[in-house]
Amino acid sequence: MTISIDQAAFAAETLKALGHPLRLRLVAALCEGDRTVTDLVNLTGARPATVSQQLRILRMRGLVRSRRSGGFATYHVADPGLCDLIRCIGRCPSFTAP
Questions:
Q1: Is residue 97 a part of any domain in this protein?
Q2: How does strand 72-77 pair with strand 35-36?
Q3: Which range marks the domain in which residue 62 is found?
Q4: What are phi and psi of 62, to 5 degrees?
Q5: How far is CA 55 from the centre of its chain?
Q6: In angstroms, rounded to a whole number, what is the distance separating the alpha carbons of residues 58 and 64?
Q7: Per-residue model confidence (pLDDT) at position 98
Q8: In this predicted model, what pLDDT tens digit does every residue of 17-67 receive, in sequence order?
Q9: Does the pLDDT at position 96 exceed 80?
Q10: Does residue 18 form part of some domain?
Q11: Second label for 37, Cα 20 to 30 Å away, from 31, 58, 68, 84?
Q12: Domain membership flag for residue 58
């Protein structure tokens, strides 16, 4: 399999964005369905400000998107293909903690 320089650069930037444990958990949660910050706080146990900060990074990278409704922002994965990567990580023995 050959990957172009542009593909490699894009993949590396995406993997950097996912390279934080909380961001990885947030994306995994969003792969299960749309969520609000409150939902994600309850799922992860992280502080609301921390969740919001990490979502901002994921949004800036284009990995998640948000939409406002009724005064609340609901987040979702921008590209469903990202969830394939998350599932792969979950199944891969190389990513299992020792």
A1: no
A2: antiparallel
A3: 5-91
A4: 85, 15
A5: 8
A6: 6
A7: 64
A8: 999 999 999 999 999 999 999 999 999 999 999 999 999 999 999 999 999
A9: no
A10: yes
A11: 84
A12: yes
Q: How far apart are CA 30 and CA 10, in angstroms?
A: 21
Q: What gap in Å lies between CA 94 and CA 21, rounded to an integer? A: 16
pLDDT at 21: 94
pTM, to two decimals: 0.88
Radius of gyration of the chain (CA): 14
Q: Answer yes or no: is 63 within a domain.
A: yes
Closest by Cα among 51, 55, 52, 53 to 65: 55
Q: Tell me, what CATH number does 22's domain have?
A: 1.10.10.10
**Per-position DSSP letters for 47-98, written without gaps between them:** -HHHHHHHHHHHHHTTSEEEEEETTEEEEEES-THHHHHHHHHHH-GGGS--
Tell me how long the chain is.
98
